[in-house]
Fold these 2 entries.
Entry 1:
Amino acid sequence: MNKKISDKIIKRLTLYHCILVDYISKGLETVSSPVIASLLHIDESQVRRDITILNKSGKKGVGYNVIELKKSIEIKLGFSKDKPAFIVGAGNLGFALAKYSNFENYGLKVLALFDNDENKIGKKVNNKEIYNICKIKELSTKMNVEIAILTVPRDFAQGVTNELIKANFKYIWNFTPVILEVPENVFVLNENLMGNFLKFTMNKK
Amino acid sequence: MNKKISDKIIKRLTLYHCILVDYISKGLETVSSPVIASLLHIDESQVRRDITILNKSGKKGVGYNVIELKKSIEIKLGFSKDKPAFIVGAGNLGFALAKYSNFENYGLKVLALFDNDENKIGKKVNNKEIYNICKIKELSTKMNVEIAILTVPRDFAQGVTNELIKANFKYIWNFTPVILEVPENVFVLNENLMGNFLKFTMNKK
DNA sequence: TAGATTGTTAATCGATTAACAATC
DNA sequence: TAGATTGTTAATCGATTAACAATC
């Protein structure tokens, strides 16, 4: 089987992918590791090393074909694998993410939203219906969804998470500033926007 | 001067901080490294090691005082240092971030939004006015803002970035899926939500 | 005291970088 | 051919983990 790819490599590969999308839209045919490295302010041998895990080769003296390299990244990272998900919490952030069409390029498909606010239930955002949160187990089972994008207010975070666990969700992408308690077979990704931000303003000067 | 703190440590410290906020609200007085470690599914000696950089000590056999530890993290990471910022792009994500009150707990203060849509200009979101993008240099100078939160559509990303550079912004928190070209003295943080997400669903199973 | 937990050192592990032969 | 860039190895660097004496 495939070796695990480290988180850092995955993150960098998605950034290379952004560059490739841009180069393709500009009609360019190749790109070299020094160019990618300088755009991202990283080391050029790191770029080459990352690319080796794609089992795809470039041309010495020339660089990489942008279309092939883009496709290799998409295959390796499973962009074409459907990842159906529900957004839980139809507030501002939930709405914003529901409308964020870029997710679909990566295979993440938001099928519906959930909330407990009667005024929102039944309405649609970007063609996705907002359901009563109490329906979530029924619908996740029927629609075979095991990814939840959690955007509820902090005080509801753990309570709603408990419902998600009962509904057999396996992945919780946690946009709340709460550390969730979950059983071993459920994975939580703490998005922790401010943590990302602080590491940015703290170290640079 | 203070040694640089690695990005990973900063990120973990913010997660410890979330736990501490929770413990304090529950009226608990101490927390130990094994407890923090198990909540975050990390190694307990890593927690202790991270905490040493705060120059703050726990009690052997007991743990850490939650209030003191929380304060130490806030001091170390500069939560009380004001970080005035503008949101550039008053779309869904821009609106959501403008309403995300949690930022203020970390010292990030969104002072205004900017857009080029005449229908939005002059309106307010969460008490923050939306200005015409052409005013950004004037206002960033007057209000002494050097952080931009970039939430424009992809096709505008580089063009708007060029304006931000002219307006002397130093930090660009980039929520677009575009790799921005900037001079050396401008720092870009690629938020790259999907990159974060993929490293989550790829490796776990 | 006995049990628990810290603080810290040493060992391990993994990621980054430097360097360069191969070759387009 | 000359210049550029890849692919890869070895060296370096930094982060994580294991272990345990000190001590509350």
Entry 2:
Amino acid sequence: MPELPEVEHQARFLRRLVLNRKITRAEASPTQVLQGKTTSVSFTEALSGRHVSAIERVGKFLILRLDSSFVLLSHLGMTGRWVARSSTDPSPSHTRASLFLEEERVFRYVDRRMLGRLEILHEADLAKHKSLASLGPDPLLDGLDAARLATLLATTRRPIKAVLMDAKIIAGIGNIQATEALFRARVHPQRPASSLSKDEITAIADGIVATIAHTLAAHAHEDEIVYLSDRRDVKNPFLVYGRVNEACSRCRTLISTVVVAMRSSAFCPSCQPATRAATRSALQRGR
DNA sequence: ACGGATGTTCGCGC
DNA sequence: CGCGCGAACATCCG
């Protein structure tokens, strides 16, 4: 489930429980998870006996800095998460790596689909990491105002939703946050980015900031990352994501869906009209 | 039983 | 160069 808010929640969770602690031993099970090609040091060698000196988040990446020249870079993919357990408890299924701390504490990286990645890097190579280096501004770390967003959107006619999900444009926005931000801004996901008005761009910037804050707040009381699909007792905290065929919370029109950049996008056909002209008339009608 | 799922990267073709 | 499309990674759920 991880997009920016979930990864931020994970960072806060790990800071509370792992920061300044000593990793007595570390192990990673399947080699697929690890991409240590840039260093000669193994996962176990790099981490064992080290203290975690800082935990950072950039976009959807987690960075665990160690009291050595190495860092652990973690990307959760679609289904990755870090969980806290006692070392005497059995490993959850799909455990891919474990960081053992003192007092029988262990942090396990669990990733069902294994689309996430763990990498051991030299600190000096972090800035050269291709995916990290190409990230656009992070809305939480760098802020995202309308002027900045306008510059990022001006040069392309790609659908706005595809652009918002492009990590090189803005870091941390995935399918859910892009869907939610566009609903909040009342902008159709397929509108060409460069066709958007100044007011619409302002609404999108505000929508991004608002949906991230809302999602972060929804996770605040959770101790670990909860997958919506795992927990049917947790109610859907989103305005349109996962609400196809439900009534729009603003106008009661049924929420619809359209595929943009190969991802399904929930939207309200009435609040988020496909053309700018239709947007104007919808606003005049008071939507 | 098949299609879809919160992510990213890469190759292909226009 | 821009961009859409599909595949690949691996697994589960409805």
